[in-house]
Design goal:
Blueprint (H helix, E strand, L loop, with lengths): L3 H56 L21 E7 L9 H14 L3 E7 L1 H9 L17 H16 L5 E9 L5 E9 L9 H11 L5 H5 L5 H4 L7 E4 L3 E4 L3 H83 L1
Parallel strand pairs: 1-2, 1-3
Antiparallel strand pairs: 3-4, 5-6
């Protein structure tokens, strides 16, 4: 059993560690609130972009576009080269946050024939580089303090690779908070966008009610709109007569090119903020768990210290009593 001095030193050490974990918990709490506020402030703009894209795709469902999965495909047999954007942290002490993202990204890489990794965050970058995965060395971005500018720079890099057909599909792997307690790893396809997800169900239902036997694409084919003129990438005005006149200038493709770029930027920014918030939430939980464990250890050490101190006091009393008895016995012998 350790002596009282050793136990006291250990108690002081745990108390100092508790001060650090509590401070880190408070810092993570502040960063989490900041990240949530940033995402909340920018969501209306990007939701508005999504509304506009949905409306255009609804009125022009047969338009082929490079940013959507309805574009013309040249090589059907050739394997697609995938780009995986992995959002990890720059530092640890966040529980299983980094481990879960890295594990999912590693699984996707192992099941893909052709791929390239774009890693945000120093921990993930070091791990994949050490394991021999093809990591883009020029793609170096931090995960802390996400900003729209950083999301825009990342989007420019990825979109250029996609437009030059160096990548056929781009996926974002990040952590999303299900609630304040649990988190889950999300894998979202960034490019090409799935056009059917943008066509709103309520718009289809509205068209059905108005036109009776209207059934999606068939109803659009029978409309007055000339689809051949709308899909040219020229400066032309499109007019669609359904609920009301629908004007697009200079052309649907050019408008979508701008809208989709901003939408992808918003999606990337949302993923960065969501990952940052999840990291801080995981660090909060880890620091709270560490603080609770430290308090339990302090209780056990306090009991052990009291026992050791009580044993020392008992031993001293025993020695005093023993010495007094020895002196008394000696006096009797002298007499």
């Amino acid at each position: 059993m350790a002596n009282a001095k050793e136990i006291q030193n250990r108690i002081r050490s745990i108390q100092d560690t508790m001060k650090i974990t509590r401070a880190m918990y408070m810092m993570s709490s502040m960063k989490l609130r900041k990240a949530k506020q940033q995402l909340e402030n920018t969501e209306p703009y990007f939701f508005g972009l999504q509304e506009q894209i949905s409306s255009i795709l609804y009125h022009f469902p047969y338009m082929e576009h490079i940013y959507f999965d309805n574009r013309s495909k040249d090589n059907h047999a050739a394997p697609k080269k995938k780009g995986f954007v992995v959002l990890t942290g720059d530092k640890g002490m966040a529980g299983a946050y980094n481990h879960n993202v890295i594990k999912e990204a590693q699984r996707l890489c192992d099941t893909s024939e052709k791929y390239e990794l774009f890693v945000v965050g120093e921990l993930g970058r070091q791990y994949f580089r050490g394991q021999g995965y093809p990591v883009d060395e020029d793609f170096r971005f931090t995960a802390t303090n996400p900003s729209v500018h950083r999301a825009r720079v990342i989007t420019e890099i990825l979109v250029e690779l996609y437009k030059h057909k160096e990548l056929d599909e781009i996926y974002v792997i990040y952590t999303k908070m299900a609630n304040s307690i649990s988190e889950e790893v999300e894998v979202q396809q960034l490019l090409p966008l799935k056009s059917h997800q943008f066509i709103k169900q309520e718009m289809l239902e509205k068209a059905k009610k108005k036109k009776g036997n209207y059934n999606g694409a068939q109803g659009l084919q029978n409309s007055k709109f000339d689809y051949g003129n709308a899909f040219d990438d020229t400066d032309r005005i499109g007019v669609y007569e359904n609920d009301e006149d629908f004007f697009i200038y200079p052309s649907p493709k050019k408008v979508l090119k701008k809208l989709v770029y901003n939408y992808v930027t918003g999606f990337m920014y949302g993923a960065l903020v969501e990952a940052s918030a999840s990291e801080e939430n995981a660090r909060m939980m880890a620091m709270q768990s560490a603080t609770n464990n430290a308090e339990e250890m302090l209780k056990e050490l306090s009991v052990e210290f009291n026992r050791v101190r009580q044993a020392a006091i008992t031993q001293e009393i025993t020695e005093v009593i023993g010495g007094a008895k020895a002196l008394k016995k000696k006096k009797k012998q002298v007499r």
